[in-house]
Amino acid sequence: MTVREVAAEAYREALPVLAVSGVGGLFAGVVLGGMEAELQAVPGLLMLVPALLATRGNVYGSLGARLASALHQGLIEPRLNLDDERLRGAIAAALANGVLVSLFAAVLAFVVLAVLGRQVAPLGTLVGIAGIAGLISGLLLTAAVVGVVFLGYRRGYNPDTLAGPVVTTTGDVVGVATLLLATRIVLGLGGL
């Protein structure tokens, strides 16, 4: 295969996913723009948005890379088999990391805002929102990453090419949507 053919194949695989990624990013921005009431009701919530979205990309991008590497090496089969210890371990690690980093981000946001003398919601409120959003988005992103990586691999696509843009887009859309949902749940419960 020539360099030109390799480049053409890479673009053929990546451009549709990148186009969807751009649209998804705009959708996430629209959802975030619609969260004005929640952002005002929970001081410090806006500080969590970039941290939580970045962790979604990092944690679940890592899951996609692990799965892609395992597929390339023949360590796992491209199907959901929860009896497979490697697959189960990768999924459990991603979910645990996603939730723990979300909780850490909430505590850190609370501490930083308190030290700076800024208005901040109670720690329980921020931790509750981050924990719920981290768990729900983690479950959704795990399903998306595993599905896209395995399906793409079975159809002859390079899962490394698919995983990054899919995780980024899905992470942004799901991350903002679950943050909104988690905020409404916590506020509905009285703020924790």
Automatic annotation (TrEMBL):
Bilayer topology term: Multi-pass membrane protein
CC per GO annotation: membrane
GO molecular function: monoatomic cation transmembrane transporter activity
UniProt domain SLC41A/MgtE integral membrane: residue ranges: 49-181
Pfam assignment, any one: MgtE
The organism's place on the tree of life at top rank: Archaea
InterPro entries in the cross-refs: SLC41_membr_dom, SLC41_membr_dom_sf, SLC41A1-3
Keyword field contains Ion transport: yes
Transmembrane segments: 14-33, 89-116, 123-153, 173-191
Family of this protein: Belongs to the SLC41A transporter family.
Protein name, UniProt field: MgtE-like transporter
Organism: Halorientalis persicus
